[in-house]
């Protein structure tokens, strides 16, 4: 029992494929938090993020057989989370205005409010590369592999995203 | 504000978001359902179908070795559940010793597959048995082993790093033809039981789990040149022309 939490994702997936429910719980618990933060960052709305993560986990585990277990599991899962989140955002209003209640939920400091709001104003592609870095700690090559884009594309999106974020924050009222 | 400060500030902000209990529960439910589906699939397919093609070689008075050769259905006596696992695995599905697809059966030009690194203290025989056991059980790679980059072409076993080639884990002939695993039927089996295994292997007829479990891997003897860290230089493989 103690050894299981230290198992790699791939080992856990193999156990799930053999019907191991405990491995399934561990794998889900391991990834639900970063997945949720990723989704919050993309959608800007906790309730949309919950929907996106639930949908992504259902899809991912339903098609676990299509996961190539010679490759890392996390990027495969998070790519699904990103796609589900983006799908919800494109269906929701493009510019997300936080309600007063959501502002409260977001946090009390102005810096926090501005950062979240500013993040939502970035184009989705740029938002995603920033979040892969911030939430998952992925390097540009790792992000590139997870998203299926060129490393140079990740670098340029990240650089532009950070410039835009800085601009937005500097232009925000104190 | 530098890029780093900006990213850290955003990270701190997002770190405060926690998924609700309900979401965590639903995520775990989704994962458990996957395990339940896998378990149900295995239960439905309890009977192991011996699906090997090969020749029987008498080795001694009452023991026999069952030599398998790769074909599109696989070279191991796997059940449907394990076969599904094999087809889902990016490595096993294109292993020339297991599935004879469109790839070359010669080690000189077979598509290189990763190697498997085993825990400390594992020898080649144990590694080969673990690989066969895991594939037979459910069509996956052994869980105590980790995938690593391919070994140098022609190397079957890296003795220092305890890594087994997945391109040719059961060795290859002098010309480079990758060997499929060979199984031994123990002398303790009655002639009738041995005959049933042979008939099942040749005809693809269903056999009981006990019979399938009775056959054991005949661990090949590697040539020194097939062992990294061994006494010999790497094998000289003849050039292939097509």
With strands numbered from the N-terminus, the spatial order across the biggest sheet of chain B is: 4-3-6-5-9
The percent range for helix content of chain A is: over 70%
Q: Oligomeric status of the shown chains? A: heterodimer
Average pLDDT score of chain A: 80
Overall helicity of chain B: 25-40%
What's the count of strands of chain B? 9
- Major sheet of chain B: 5 strands, mixed
Q: Low-confidence spans of chain B: pLDDT under 50, at least 5 residues? A: 45-65, 67-73, 202-209
Q: Shape of chain B, please?
A: extended
Which chain pair has the greatest contact? A-B, 58 and 46 residues
| Cα Rg of chain B | 22 Å
Query: Measured on Cα atoms, how large is the radius of gyration of chain A?
Result: 17 Å
Cα distance spanning the termini of chain B: 62 Å
Percent strand of chain B: 5-15%
Q: What are the segments of chain A in which pLDDT stays under 50 over at least 5 consecutive residues?
A: 1-5, 92-113
Description:
The complex is a heterodimer of chains A (174) and B (242). Chain A contains 9 helices and no strands. Chain A has helices spanning 9-17, 21-43, 46-62, 73-91, 100-106, 110-120, 124-134, 140-147, 151-171. Chain B is an alpha+beta fold. Chain B has helices spanning 3-15, 21-44, 80-88, 124-138, 191-203, 209-214; strands spanning 54-58, 64-68, 115-117, 146-148, 157-158, 163-165, 182-185, 216-217, 227-228. Chain B has a 5-stranded mixed beta sheet, covered by helices on one side. In chain B, strands 1-2-7-8 form a 4-stranded antiparallel beta sheet. In chain B, strand 1 (54-58) and strand 2 form a beta hairpin. In chain B, helix 3 (80-88) packs across helix 4. Chains A and B meet through helix 1, helix 2, helix 3, helix 6 and helix 7 of A and helix 1, helix 2 and helix 3 of B.
